[in-house]
Design brief:
Shape of chain B: globular
Largest sheet of chain B: none
Shape of chain A: elongated
Oligomer: heterodimer
CATH architecture of the largest domain in chain A: 3-Layer(aba) Sandwich
Number of helices of chain A: 11
Number of strands of chain B: 0
Largest interface: A-B, 34 and 25 residues
Structural class of chain B: mainly alpha
Largest sheet of chain A: 6 strands, mixed
Strand order of the largest sheet of chain A: 6-7-8-3-9-10
CATH topology of the largest domain in chain A: Rossmann fold
Structural class of chain A: alpha/beta
């Protein structure tokens, strides 16, 4: 293995996956290095799970290559999977097995040597906070604990690549926080990919974000890069007293330079809401107020707001691009 | 090999996690016990008054053959019901619970998964067989004279037949996500194999001969009358490994869906 590539743990090379005529992934390429936590972000059916299943060796891609620590998973699945820990979307475990029994089983399958087995399993159980429930049946555990058992099985044999498919769905807020802390601790020296459709999770947890829709990567960048991108977009929200002014106002705003994505929300009690995006360099608010007063439009509220990750995401979903690619 | 044993052990112990194991043991003991008792009583009745049953000379009846030979034929019917229940969960339940998906992400070959699962079920089947050895003890205790050859061959034949059926059951289980469908499918398949044995009785010629050769029961019958033929051993070996191979292929099909 080349030294300069040694810290690239996951590499996707032009990976496509088709289910019949349906393209689940199209020509996806990316790399994940050690110490990175990459968040896959996308709506349901975007291709997140498909990408993860390909990395985990569940099925091969239709075309392209996936390398784990430089090993092609299609050619040497056995070797590549040794470095892999996978937590599926629905944590599927054997309900009639005891926690410790199950984890020992997984450790054996992952090739943990016999003399280390007991210590190894114990170590992972203590890391995931499972020591107290070792002799309980998995089927009787709460969702949060089952998630931890899922995480513990992914961690068996110390994989350097961790794939977590929606690790926090269905958990209560405390459990979400705990799982996030565990994932954060794990990300220090591993390559972690986690998928989610919870946006704040990405900003708190991930060092890099990849937005995926319809099998393509729409945007990819570190949280910092995203944040800098967020700074050059902002939204302005307007509230008009009288709904009849709406068309007139829209026409005026539409003619204004620097106004993008003009939107008209539903009216509430005769009032109407308008919002649009603009760049923060020029503050359009004084101009708008002046113009509206001159035209006799009763403006009751005007507000400037920075675009959130959510807005970017939605914008990307809508037209596949937003200002500049980042 | 260690991984195969780990899967086999898990598969084996999962049979005891539910009432399934207990129910199966009860079924096996009950059915085989009823058959055994009826045969012994029948033998006793005939031996009291052979003339009444059209036998001039009672010494012509082979005691071991009369009791154990028929016993093994009778309990093979039990496998038709036992095997579908034993194998229905094997792959079907793991597919439904998506635990198989997780297993595919471990550094395991498909062969290790299939072999482990098959082995675990075979172990459980062997545990169910153990109490059947008790009938030899009972037979000796009530004063029967045992002819060891045919009796041991009978047990060997039953073990081979059971293994062959189990391999077929595991294959059917790997095709579906529903244990129920798997059980019904396995039962139907075994029934078809069962019917092969009848063909010779209702017709003759090449086809009848082919069907008889394909019938597991025809090969099994040789064991119960104390004949050890290499052909029969090869037949059951082939039956077992052929279905093992089909299971392997059926598991691999996930790679073809692209």
């Amino acid at each position: 293995m080349n030294n300069s590539h040694s810290d690239v743990l996951i590499k996707f090379e032009k990976v496509s996956k088709k289910y019949g005529a349906f393209h689940a992934l199209r020509d996806v390429s990316f790399e994940v290095k050690a110490g990175e936590i990459v968040g896959f972000l996308g709506p349901n059916g975007a291709g997140k799970t498909t990408a993860m299943r390909i990395i985990s060796g569940f099925f091969p891609p239709t075309s392209g290559r996936v390398l784990i620590r430089g090993i092609d998973i299609a050619k040497h699945p056995h070797k590549a999977k040794r470095a892999l820990g996978y937590l599926p979307e629905t944590v599927s475990l054997y309900p009639d097995m005891k926690v410790i029994e199950y984890l020992r089983f997984v450790a054996k399958l992952k090739g943990v040597p016999g003399h280390e087995l007991t210590d190894h399993v114990r170590g992972k159980m203590s890391f995931c906070g499972l020591l107290g429930v070792g002799h309980r049946l998995i089927g009787r555990l709460s969702k949060g604990y089952r998630q931890r058992v899922g995480l513990a099985q992914a961690l068996m044999a110390d994989p350097s690549v961790l794939i977590l498919d929606e690790p926090t769905t269905g958990l209560d807020p405390t459990q979400i926080k705990e799982i996030r802390e565990l994932v954060h601790a794990l990300g220090q020296n591993r390559a972690v990919i986690l998928s989610t459709h919870i946006l704040p999770e990405v900003s708190t947890l991930c060092s890099r974000v990849m937005m995926i829709n319809q099998g393509q990567i729409l945007a990819s960048g570190t949280v910092k890069e995203l944040a800098s991108c967020l700074k050059d977009r902002e939204a302005i929200h307007l509230r008009l007293k009288d709904r009849r002014d709406q068309d007139h106002a829209l026409k005026l705003l539409g003619a204004m330079p620097g106004v993008e994505n003009l939107n008209c929300a539903e009216e509430v009690k005769g009032e109407t809401f308008i919002s649009f995006e603009t760049s923060p360099e020029e503050d359009l608010r004084p101009l708008i107020t002046k113009l509206f007063v001159e035209q006799g439009i009763s403006l009751v509220e005007i507000q400037r707001q920075q675009l959130s990750l959510e807005d970017i995401f939605l914008g990307l979903l809508k037209d596949g691009k937003l200002g500049r690619r980042f | 090999m260690r991984k195969v044993f780990a899967i086999a052990r898990k598969e084996f112990s999962s049979c005891f996690h539910s009432w399934l194991g207990v129910m199966m043991s009860v079924l096996v003991l009950l059915v085989s016990g009823v058959f055994f008792v009826i045969l012994v009583l029948n033998y006793a009745k005939i031996s009291m008054n052979p003339q009444q049953y059209g036998l001039s000379n009672f010494s012509g009846i082979n005691q071991t053959q009369f009791i154990f030979g028929s016993f093994f034929i009778n309990i093979s019917i039990m496998l038709l019901f036992l095997v579908p229940i034993l194998t229905m969960r094997s792959f079907a339940e793991e597919k439904r619970g998506e635990t198989l998906e997780l297993m595919f992400t471990y550094p395991l070959s498909d062969f290790e998964i299939v072999a482990g699962k098959q082995l675990g079920i075979v172990w459980f089947f062997e545990i169910l067989l153990l109490p059947l050895l008790g009938y030899i003890v009972i037979y000796r205790w009530i004063g029967g004279e045992i002819d060891w050859g045919p009796v041991l061959l009978g047990y060997l034949g039953f073990w081979l037949l059971g293994n062959a059926y189990l391999a077929a059951g595991v294959f059917i289980s790997s095709l579906t996500k529903s244990p129920m469908v798997s059980a019904i499918g396995t039962f139907s398949l075994l029934l078809v194999f069962w019917i092969f044995d009848w063909v010779e009785g209702i017709s003759s010629g090449v086809w009848a001969h082919i069907f008889t050769e394909l019938s597991p029961l025809a090969h099994y019958r040789n064991f119960t009358i104390g004949i050890l033929d290499v052909q029969d051993l090869v037949y059951f070996g082939f039956f077992f490994f052929y279905f093992l191979f089909l299971t392997l292929r059926s598991i691999e099909t996930r790679n073809w869906k692209s």
